[in-house]
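Extended Data, record Thymidine kinase
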Amino acid sequence: MPELVFFSGTMDCGKSTLALQIEHNRSARGLQGMIFTRDDRAGAGKLSSRLGLVTDAVEAADGFDFYAYLVAHLSKGGRCDYVIADEAQFLAPGQIDQLARVVDDLELDVFAFGITTDFRSKLFPGSQRLVELADRVEVLQVEALCWCGARATHNARTIGGRMVVEGAQVVVGDVNQSQDEIGYEVLCRRHHRRRMTSASARAAALSPDVLPVAAP
């Protein structure tokens, strides 16, 4: 039976790489998939991984209808054996409903990839709807690591290396941005709660206020 599968994890844990691997494995067996993405770091109409792999995709902007698009594609004689939707956290709940309908009515497997929570540890609406509707939710096992070496479980937004907790939910950035730009960093829960990024941890270590005081 076809399934709606949600592959979730923090930033930098290999979601897009897995999406590209699934596409490679299935296309190597003669299957043809349809790839969708939203706000990829490589630009519109691209699905890319931090390993340098990239492929063309259909940009699923606001108001895009997955079900109608695929019905039109199939009605014109096009072929589609499965669907990949990357950056699914940015999709509207109604678009997730459309992906579920693709599974149920068109009988196509849909593999969705996305971050579960935002920089404030709040569920993205698209991810919440995927958790509600997916046949399976798979947490990626390639662990991203916090600067302290612990397993990273939270995404932090940074400006100038410092964590911020206010602002729009969707601001496109990456984990490798310069410290003067809006960027992101993955942290363990403890350091996310303390708002301690790698930059602020280095600053604290260099501060004379935290150095041992010599005995009189």
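Summary. The longest strand covers residues 109-114.
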